[in-house]
Amino acid sequence: MYGQKTRLSQQPQQATPGNVYPIKVHISGLHYRVEGVAEVIFADAVVDGKKLELYGGQRSHFLAFYKLPLGDYQARLIKDPHKPYKVDGTPMYQQYELVLPDNVVWRCTVTGFSE
């Protein structure tokens, strides 16, 4: 069974001054689902012109206090598992950090894409 330790007193991560978030992201749809004991978010998004599905496996206390609004955000790519292998053309499993309106960082992973 999948499990993730949750510390209810831990606050969501804030955007660090000096980090650059050059990628434009537009979130147009949300799907909240339950995985085990925690809620997760699947977001329909356009990232640099590509239609993607973003998965955010956030802690349940984060979702209780912050519902992700639709709209435009700034982001940065923090991990691209394909880069060391020189596989081009697929955004699958890339990880991004999106800066939300209250300066909270939402980490998400690409789990799907469409035309």
Please tell me about this protein's structure.
By secondary structure, the protein is mainly beta. A 6-stranded antiparallel beta barrel has the order 1-2-3-6-5-4. The model is unreliable at 1-6 (pLDDT under 50). The protein has a domain at 20-73. It has one helix spanning 60-65; strands at 23-35, 38-47, 50-56, 71-79, 95-99, 105-114. It has 1 helix and 6 strands.
Q: Calculate the mean pLDDT score and round it.
A: 80
- The fraction of residues in strands falls at over 45%
Q: For the terminal residues, how far apart are their CA atoms?
A: 34 Å
Structural class category: mainly beta
DSSP summary: helix tally: 1
User: What helical percentage do the residues reach?
Assistant: under 10%
Strand line-up in the sheet with most strands: 1-2-3-6-5-4
Summarize, please.
By secondary structure, this protein is mainly β. It is built from one helix and six strands, in the order βββαβββ.
Key features of this structure:
6 strands, mainly beta, disordered N terminus, 5% helix, 115 residues
Layout of SSEs?
Elements: E1 23-35, E2 38-47, E3 50-56, H1 60-65, E4 71-79, E5 95-99, E6 105-114
Antiparallel strand pairs: 1-2, 1-4, 2-3, 3-6, 4-5, 5-6
